[in-house]
Amino acid sequence: MIEFTNVGLRYGQGPEILRDLSFRIEPGSFHFLTGPSGSGKTSLLKILLLSLRPSTGKVKLFGRDVSALDQDSLLQLRRHIGIVFQEFRLLEHLTTFENVALPLRVLGQPESQYRENVTELLEWVGLGERMHALPALLSGGEKQRAAIARAVIGRPDILLADEPTGNVDPELSLRLVRLFAELNKMGTTIILATHELPLLDNFPFPRMMLDDGRVSFRD
Amino acid sequence: MTEERPAQRARTAPIVPERSVAGRTLVLLVAIMTFLSAVTLGGVVLVQKSAVAWSSDVGREVTIEIRPVEGEVMESNLRTAVALAEQTPGVAAARVVSLEESQQLLEPWLGTGIDLSAIDVPRLVVVELADPEDADIAKLERDLAAIQGASLDTHAAWRQQLNAMAGTIVVSGLLVLSLIVLATVLAIIFATRGTMASNREIVDVLHFIGASNSFIAGEFQGRFLSIGFRGGIVGGLAAIVFFLAVGLTAGNVVPDEASAQLGILFGRFSLGFDGILGILAVVPVIASLTAITSRLTVRRFLSQTS
What we know:
The complex is a heterodimer of chains A (219) and B (306). Chain A has 219 residues and is an alpha/beta fold. Helices cover 33% and strands 26% of the residues of chain A. Chain A has a 6-stranded mixed beta sheet with strand order 6-7-8-3-9-10, sandwiched between helices. In chain A, helix 3 packs across helix 4, helix 3 packs parallel to helix 5 (140-152) and helix 5 (140-152) packs parallel to helix 6 (170-185). The radius of gyration of chain A is 17 Å and the shape is globular. A 4-stranded antiparallel beta sheet of chain B has the order 2-3-1-4.
């Protein structure tokens, strides 16, 4: 599903952020991406989200070499990938329901077509009572669950999460990672970036460790 | 702050919030630009219409001038000239300008109460053409060679000058109109760039959830189209009110006689139904210009940032 071959990245003439990364990630797997701050976790996720091109090497997603794809093909491929950020990035003027429905709305679907699915998903993540609230009225945990719901409403094959537990307390962090685990059970490939090592001990998933731009794997 | 319930939001909120677009200032700017465009266009049309009407009136007449020549009988020559003119194909009628009429024509230069019988003044025959295109002016000119002191004035020089003057005014007006349109486009480009910069977060979110540049541009274009329409309607209505007010004021302030003369020279300062339609047509043009300019600016912004 994801294949990196000798991938390197540097911004402009700056130092190499990622060096010679080569690995494969199988469909339906769950990986924690760990490493100290500045180790390149976010840059690696941006390459996977197709919003950044590597400086060297080859990236294949769903069997396709992404460097050979035009804008339209990249856009089609991106619609198979969901992303969750540490800072939630919900649109403040839209309700929880509207934020979660956004990926379907940009595909041109009418509300009558997606209303039931979005409501069901919001109830599944525990936001059934808060679907008409604006983000400003949600707690950190609620915002993150809304962000997760938005990332998965389009049924992506890959779900990327960049420090999704960074703004919530340890107990809620645990519940959020369990939510990702549930999604993984349904077949979604998940890469979750975090530097909270104690949290990882609660889950049996393999770890991708980035250090000084290089990656190593540990089960 | 209170939580919004479904009943409070009848429809899905727009992706680009209304208040995030520099709305009121831009509406005012578009209104001013529409007003200036409509007034300039109205002025150009007014001059063009008057010039065409004047040129057409002058073109329907030619004048035979007969200078006094010693040994020639003026009255006889005038009759001959009228007869020759009436025989010419394309001529509707010919008449001699009486001495009294000649006196009135000369009054601005010679003053009132002069006795023309004491002076040898040239006499005029006004020839009305049925159809200026088909009238055989060359034949009339040849025939008039038989009368000593006769010459034919087709007013060609006047018409040429008038057309040149009207053409200059029209071209200047169109140039001003182009500059107004250019200024409008530039203002919209700056406003759109500002809006895009202040809505960067929305653009980024839309990008990573898989929205195409075309979709994002469409969302912003909708906002700007609405602004363009509102500004256009305000400016267009203001221009119509301006023309009506000036038309009424000119009628009240200028005396009837002077007003009539002004009307003959410059046409009536009145839009008419077609003029109002013309100004109303400026509104969708400005609104479309606003929408298209913002769309192109957004597309450019997105292609630079994505």
